[in-house]
Amino acid sequence: MGAIFDNKSKAVINYTLSFDASARGASVEHIYNFFTFSTQDQDVIDLIDVEGMGGEIPVEFPRLWEGYSPERIISDYEKPSRIFLSSTPYDVRNTGYVGYFLWLFYDNQGFMIRYDGVIKFTPTYHICPRIQHEGEITNIHLVSVGPGSTLALETQDEIFGSDYHKVIALEEATGITIDMFTQLFKHNQISSCFESPLDVWK
Fold first, then answer.
1. Which of 2, 92, 129, 134 has the lowest CB atom count within 10 Å?
2. Domains in the chain: boundaries
3. pLDDT by residue (tens digit) across 76-99?
């Protein structure tokens, strides 16, 4: 992912992003509902922010998921440096479901990926981040910063830095370590699930 910062023209950067997405099985025009970038100066891209929304692209989203699921990311990049989770203790709309956010940080590689999903509202949240399943992922959000950037990845995420969301480190929220999470998603790709008690989010 860091290679996208090696190019100096917008046209070449767009080409690189398109090629990378195609290599993971989906066409760029159907994935990037939101695509922004900022520059340190006229020649260096400092930040790229990309988001794909499952509800907006139901046909292409499963193909996007194949390339950017936690299993695929961990297979490609190994153990995340940090993992965080966010949810709520309330079923505000009385639907029987609540939302959650899962962040995987790869600080040394300069990127962060966030998965937005929904789960059943129960005393213990059973989270299986995949599509077409309870714990269904609705959005994938990717932020990547350039080499030498002074930007902190978490400050570029509108949910992570929000006063309205409780964000907790994975181990505190679930009782499993980053190493355990990595092994779970690396070796058990069919039923990679974990749990978090509702009381944690009060």
1. 92
2. 2-201
3. 999 999 999 999 999 989 999 999
